[in-house]
């Protein structure tokens, strides 16, 4: 984002505008935190702003300030279309290509609004007039903080905005432990706490509100864990039957893939989750060091993300997907053993 871009955006935001803010499908803490932080910032500056998520999000995010004002594109389709058609500006946050919004893609492609992208995923598409893309950033929430800073406006960050931003930095950094957590991240977080983010309370909302069934599902996932030491790889499967058995709810499998990475000497972890309704196997990949799961997912599972965290999917059965995965590993044996 150039100095010229910043002054253009300042001018654009100098008068009240109709603004839509969109995160990716199946929004996570960073997607919800960043869009709502920007929402609160914009309405404070007298804009008319709406967050539209492609679909619903987990219960552990259903406390975030302003969350009750979110429109869901799939279930509130007519109103969502109207807001998109009417928008002067559309901010797209925490994703890099329109297809990441699922069924919202055509509406975004057709919209004549000025697009502003703020995102930290690899290889962003070129759809936005103004692009703030930085793959080294811990989170889109950290970027929204920097965006507000570039606008010279951090003094307007109140406890509500700070809470939203803290949420996404916390979730995307695995509570400040991933390599993407920089000294700047910590400075931002320190400022957010000073501005009123209640760190213990936010952590409690996200991580300490499990249902009994969710923990039982985790037990099932861990008992399905397989380790392939020659490839320093571990993977977990969850079938639709297993999900049903534990009354699966959206978000229940969030973070489970990380258990594979917690094994000594394992640097590549995967989880394969059967989704009968969508007819796909949802794949999450995580890695350590320089082994790029973004590249791995792009090459084999039609997805992408970051070097150490990426998603993807497969159209064949759970068993066939796992077989495909295992058959691919020998060609990465060197890379996996030299990390
Ligand atoms: P998760 O495994 O939690 O679904 O995703 C891990 C990371 O990769 C997240 O930052 C997520 O936004 C991103 N991601 C997931 N699926 C895709 C995809 O298909 N394409 C891209 N570019 N990123 C993805
Ligand atoms: Mn993110």
TrEMBL record:
Domain DHHA1: 245-327
Enzyme Commission number, as recorded: 3.1.3.7
InterPro entries in the cross-refs: DDH_dom, DHH_sf, DHHA1_dom, Oligoribo/pAp-PDE_c-di-AMP_PDE
GO molecular function: 3'(2'),5'-bisphosphate nucleotidase activity
A Pfam family matched in the record: DHH
Keyword annotations of the record: Hydrolase
Domain DDH: 18-169
Protein name: Bifunctional oligoribonuclease/PAP phosphatase NrnA
Organism: Mariniflexile ostreae
